[in-house]
Design brief:
Layout lengths: L2 H16 L2 H8 L5 H26 L1 H26 L2
Helix pairs in contact: 1-3, 1-4, 3-4
Length: 88
């Protein structure tokens, strides 16, 4: 059941990564339009919050907070290592 918050975290951090012009240029060769950049940031933050909140709803407040931090850490590390590997 924790798979849904993990996917939300992964997608959220991916969109936050794409909200930075440097990563846009690294991945696409050019920057996205300002509107798409702002949309990527907003949707990314929304998914990160939903991933944490979803973990708390699924597992309860005490254990859900621990799972939420773990889920967010997982998503951030996967995106960070992927972007680092792709830029080389």
């Amino acid at each position: 059941m924790i798979l849904l918050p993990m996917l939300a975290s992964l997608l959220g951090f991916t969109l936050l990564c794409l909200g930075m012009s440097r990563h846009q240029r690294d991945l696409f060769g050019r920057a996205m339009s300002p509107g798409r950049t702002v949309a990527a940031r907003w949707i990314g933050w929304t998914l990160v919050v939903l991933a944490y909140g979803g973990s708390m709803l699924i597992e309860g407040a005490a254990l859900g907070a621990v799972y939420g931090v773990g889920v967010l850490t997982f998503g951030a590390l996967v995106v960070a290592f992927t972007v680092t590997g792709m830029s080389r």
